[in-house]
C-alpha cells in the first residue's frame, strides 16, 4: 500500500441489511483486516467469510448477534485463503450446526454452485464463480441493493493479487456485468461504484501489461549475445514499481511473473531461461 489506509470501525452497519465486522487481523496485505459481513434483517442471518479466527472477531460476532437478537443460519466463504476461512472452527463451536458453504469444499462443508441462491429475511444472495485470485473464488450479488460482495478480486483500497492473470481478467469482465451498485470488498472500505471500480482494475492491469512490454523492448538488464534485452521479474519491478515501497517488491514480482506468462501465451514475450524474459519483437531492441 502506498496510500494511507482509511480508518474503519470494528463494527459498522453499512445498510439496513448489512453489517461489517472486521476480522481483527490488520496487516500489510490484509489492510484494515478481513471484512466479514452479517446479512439479513430477521432472526436468521447469513455470514460472509470468517476472518482468521481471532478471539476479538468471535467475541464481536457474538456481541453483535446478541444486539440483533439473531443467530447465524449459514456461512459462505469466498475462497480458501486462511484470512477468510480461519474462523470456521470457532464459528462452529459457537453456533453448532451452522452450514458452511465454500466452492471446492473441505470435509464437513457444502459446495457452492455458480448461480446458487442463498436467502434469509431481508437478504437474497446469488453466487458467481470468479476464479483468478484463487481457483475457488466466489462473489455474491445482493439482490436487495444490486450490490456485490467482491471477496479479494476487488479491494476497497489498492489492487488485488492473483494466481492467473488471464483467468482473473475474465472474471473481472464477468463481474462488472452482474450488478450496478456498491461493492463490498474482502478488505477495505465500501466502494460506491462497484462496476466503475472493476473497470479501473481492468484498465490498471492492461496498463501494467503495456509497461512490461515497453520495458522489455528497451535496453535490457542483460545485454549478452544470447540474452540481449532480457530481464528478470525483479529487474522489471524495480523500474515499473519504483514508487512502491521495496517491502512490497516480492509481491509485485509475483504479479509481473503472471503478466509475463500471459504475454508468453499470447506470443508477445519469450522466456530466455528460467528467470529471464525478453520481447518477441526483436526489431524493438
TrEMBL record:
Q: Where is the Metallo-beta-lactamase domain?
A: 33-187
- Alphabetically, which GO biological process terms does the record hold? secondary metabolite biosynthetic process
Record CDD domains: LACTB2-like_MBL-fold
Q: Name one GO molecular function term.
A: hydrolase activity
Q: By its UniProt entry, which Pfam families does this protein fall under?
A: Lactamase_B, WHD_BLACT
For this protein, the record's SUPFAM superfamilies field holds:
Metallo-hydrolase/oxidoreductase (SSF56281)
**Cofactor list:** Zn(2+)
List UniProt keywords, sorted A-Z: Hydrolase, Metal-binding, Zinc
Q: Which Gene3D superfamilies match?
A: Ribonuclease Z/Hydroxyacylglutathione hydrolase-like, Winged helix-like DNA-binding domain superfamily/Winged helix DNA-binding domain
The family database entries (InterPro entries) matched by this protein are listed as: LACTB2-like_MBL-fold (IPR047921), LACTB2_WH (IPR041516), Metallo-B-lactamas (IPR001279), RibonucZ/Hydroxyglut_hydro (IPR036866), Sec-metab_biosynth-thioest (IPR050662), WH-like_DNA-bd_sf (IPR036388)
Q: Which PANTHER family match?
A: ENDORIBONUCLEASE LACTB2
> Which family is it part of?
Belongs to the metallo-beta-lactamase superfamily. Glyoxalase II family.
Q: What name does the UniProt record give this protein?
A: Metallo-beta-lactamase domain-containing protein
Provide the species name. Answer: Lasiosphaeris hirsuta
Amino acid at each position: 500500500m502506498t496510500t494511507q489506509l482509511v480508518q474503519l470501525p470494528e463494527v459498522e452497519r453499512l445498510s439496513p441489511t448489512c453489517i461489517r465486522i472486521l476480522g481483527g487481523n490488520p496487516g500489510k496485505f490484509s489492510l484494515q483486516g478481513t471484512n466479514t459481513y452479517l446479512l439479513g434483517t430477521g432472526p436468521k442471518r447469513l455470514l460472509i467469510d470468517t476472518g482468521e479466527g481471532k478471539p476479538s472477531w468471535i467475541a464481536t460476532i457474538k456481541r453483535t448477534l446478541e444486539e440483533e437478537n439473531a443467530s447465524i443460519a449459514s456461512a459462505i466463504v469466498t475462497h480458501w485463503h486462511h484470512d477468510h476461512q480461519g474462523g470456521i472452527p470457532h464459528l462452529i463451536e459457537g453456533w453448532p450446526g451452522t452450514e458452511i458453504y465454500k466452492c471446492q469444499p473441505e470435509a464437513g462443508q457444502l459446495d457452492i454452485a455458480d448461480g446458487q441462491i442463498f436467502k434469509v429475511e431481508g437478504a437474497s444472495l446469488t453466487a458467481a464463480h470468479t476464479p483468478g485470485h484463487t481457483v475457488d473464488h466466489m462473489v455474491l450479488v445482493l439482490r436487495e441493493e444490486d450490490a456485490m460482495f467482491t471477496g479479494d478480486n476487488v479491494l476497497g483500497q489498492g489492487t488485488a493479487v492473483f494466481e492467473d492473470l488471464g483467468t482473473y481478467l475474465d472474471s473481472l469482465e464477468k463481474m462488472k456485468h452482474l450488478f450496478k451498485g456498491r461493492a463490498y470488498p474482502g478488505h477495505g472500505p465500501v466502494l460506491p461504484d462497484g462496476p466503475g471500480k472493476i473497470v479501473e482494475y481492468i484498465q490498471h492491469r492492461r496498463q501494467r501489461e503495456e509497461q512490461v512490454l515497453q520495458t522489455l523492448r528497451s535496453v535490457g538488464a542483460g545485454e549478452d549475445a544470447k540474452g540481449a534485452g532480457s530481464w528478470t521479474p525483479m529487474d522489471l519491478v524495480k523500474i515499473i514499481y519504483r514508487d512502491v515501497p521495496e517491502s512490497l517488491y516480492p509481491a509485485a514480482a509475483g504479479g509481473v511473473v503472471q503478466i509475463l506468462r500471459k504475454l508468453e501465451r499470447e506470443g508477445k514475450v519469450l522466456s530466455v531461461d528460467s528467470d529471464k524474459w525478453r520481447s518477441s519483437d526483436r526489431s524493438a531492441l
